[in-house]
Amino acid sequence: MKLLRRFWIPLIIIVVVLVGGFTVMRVRTFFGAGDGSGFASAKVDDTKPFDPKVVVYEIYGVPGATADVNYLDLDAQPQRVDGVTLPWTLRLESTAPSVFPNIVAQGDGNSISCRITVDDELKDERTSNGVNAQTFCLVKSA
């Protein structure tokens, strides 16, 4: 009796763990989760190649003016290019199913424009006027 008083909590924990483990095993085998297929199925390896997306960033304005350009590359990582001469163009290709093109530019001229095309289709174009004009273009999903 003294031994049972001392070890009743660890015994309850062991019983609960065993019953819980048995229940999880039964539920997994009942629903077919224990067949070992996991994520490595033949369907994943059988994907068909597709044409890459071509994203073109363009910044243009007063010829000969310079601009500081910030954009997202196709992995959505910010990139910065300072002091580029206008017009400026960057062409990127991706095999990702979706991309998020975004560009911001500020120039030293009184007018600046941006344009984003994806697969030769114009997605966004903006123009800004003023001293040291700033503009941005954004495509939510392409």
Helix count from the secondary structure assignment = 2
Structural class: alpha+beta
CATH level-four homologous superfamily name of the largest domain: MmpS1-5, C-terminal soluble domain
Q: Note the gap between the termini.
A: 72 Å
**Average pLDDT over all residues:** 86
Supply the CATH architecture of the largest domain.
Answer: Sandwich
Strand order of the largest sheet: 4-1-6-7
Largest sheet: 4 strands, antiparallel
Give helix % range.
10-25%
Radius of gyration: 29 Å
- CATH class membership of the largest domain: Mainly Beta
InterPro entries: MmpS (IPR008693), MmpS_C (IPR038468)
Family: Belongs to the MmpS family.
Pfam families: Mycobact_memb
Keywords: Cell membrane, Membrane, Transmembrane, Transmembrane helix
Structure description:
The protein is an alpha+beta fold and 142 residues long. 15% of the residues are buried. The longest helix has 29 residues, at 2-30. The strands form 2 sheets. The protein has a 4-stranded antiparallel beta sheet with strand order 4-1-6-7, with no helix packed on it. The radius of gyration is 29 Å and the shape is elongated. It has 2 domains: 2-40; 53-138, Immunoglobulin-like, CATH 2.60.40. The protein has 2 helices and 8 strands. It has helices at residues 2-30, 42-45, and strands spanning 53-61, 66-72, 78-85, 88-94, 102-107, 111-118, 121-129, 134-138.
Break the fold down into its secondary structure elements and pairings.
Elements: H1 2-30, H2 42-45, E1 53-61, E2 66-72, E3 78-85, E4 88-94, E5 102-107, E6 111-118, E7 121-129, E8 134-138
